[in-house]
Hints:
The protein is an alpha/beta fold. The protein contains 20 helices and 15 strands.
Amino acid sequence: MQTRADAAVVASRAPVSHNIGFIHIREKYLMSDDIRFDLPQSAIPEQWYNVQADLPRPLPPVLHPGTHQPVGPDDLAPLFPMGLIMQEVSRDRWIEIPEEIREIYKLWRPTPLMRARRLERALDTPAHIYYKYEGVSPSGSHKLNTATAQTYYNKQEGVSGLTTETGAGQWGTALAQACSFFDMECIVYMVRISYEQKPYRRAIMQSFGASVTASPSDTTDAGNAILSQDPDSSGSLGIAISEAVEVAAKSGGKYKYALGSVLNHVLMHQTVIGQEALQQMEIAGEYPDVVVGPTGGGSNFAGIALPFLHQNLAHGKRTRLLGVEPAACPSLTRGVYAYDFGDAVGMTPLVKMYTLGHGFVPPPLHAGGLRYHGMASIICELWDQNLLDMVAIPQMETFSAAITFAKAEGIVAAPEAAHGIAGAIREALAAKEAGQERVILFNLCGHGHFDMSAYDAYLAGELSNYEYPQAEIDRAMEALPQIG
C-alpha cells in the first residue's frame, strides 16, 4: 500500500513547472508530522508566469487620459522603462527572470511553506491549513519580489532614481531596499495617516537612503490641489500616486515611477510565490482546495493564486481562489466595473477596473496597504469572468484572527496580511461546520513588526468596524470619466 509519504516523494519527483526540473526528497526525511517544507535555492523559479497568455477573454485596453484611445509604449515611456512596458503588454506565458535578479532573490527565496498545525488544533478543525510565509524577506513582505525586478530594469536603462507612493510602508520599504541594492535614488510619498501611525516604517525607508514625504504634501501641484480643498486630508494611495507620478513626469527622464501593485508586470513578478508553493505542496503530499490572499491592489493575491489558476485553466484542477478585501474599502465586492484613473487627480492612464471612484479617500483603518480605490485589471477581469471569489471582512474580525494566529503560530502579521489569515480561518471553520477535510493555503505576505501601533489600538479597544457608505460610492460614480 502506498503511504502518504510515498505519494509525496513520487509527486516531488515529477516536474512541477516547465523550467524547474526535478526535486528529490528522500523518504526518510519526510515525516507525517512535518510543519515546514523548504526548497533548495536551485528551485527558485527561472521565469515569471504571465496569466495574460491564459485568460479566456483578453484584458480591456488601457486608455490615454486625454484622448481615450488605447495607449502605446511611447505613451508609457515617460513613467516606465521599456523593459517593463514590454512585460506589461506581453502575451508570452513565461518571461525569463534575469540572473542578476535571481541572485538577489537568493537573499530570501525560496520562502518557507508552513503547515499551521497549532492553528488547526486551536480552531478544532479537520481542515489542513498551510501558509506561504513571505515575511522572511529583508523588507518583511512579498513586495521585494517586484521591487527588485523594477529597479533592475530601470537601472538597465540608465534611470537615476525612482518615485513611488506607499500606504502602510511595506512597498516603500521594499523599493528603498531595492534602490540601495542598485545604488539608485528613491523618493517616497507616504499616505499621511500611515506616515503618522507608522514612524518606524518611515525610519527604515530613510535608513536605506530614501526620502519620505507625507502625502498630500505642498511639494507638488497635485498635493497642493488636495490641500487647498482639505487642509487636514489624511491622504490616500490615489493622492500619493498623483504626487509620485508628477515628480517622475516632470523630471525629464531622470526619474521613473514604480508601482507596488495593480499593473500587469507587478502581478507577474509576484508569481514566484505560487510557483514555489506548487512545488512545496507536492512535497507535503497535498493540493489546496482553496487558495486565499489579502487583496488591495492585487499583487500578493495574484502571486499566490495565479500559478494555481494556470493549473485550473491548463490542467483541469478545481482549486477555488479567494481574495479578501477590507469592508472599509470594498472595491471588488461593492465597486463598479468601469474605466477610471489610477490616481486621484487624473494624471494616469484609464484602466477598466472595479472602482470606488478615483476621488475615494478611505477611513483611517490600519490596513493602509489595502486602501486603494480600484484593483488590478487582471484581478478585475478574473472576478468579472467568475474565475475567483472575493469576500470583504471587517477590521475587528481581521485583528481578532491575527491575534488567534499569533498565539498559535507565533507570528505577528501585518494588518494587511491578517486579512488572509481571517479568510483562511473562515474557511477552516466552514470545514469544521460541514465536517469536511479541506486543504487551505494562504499567503502570509508580511510581518507586522513595524505595525504595532495598530495592535496597540486594537488591544486598547480603540478600533471599530467601518462599513463604507453606499451614498459615498454613488457620489463617486458620478465623477467617473465618460468613455464614448
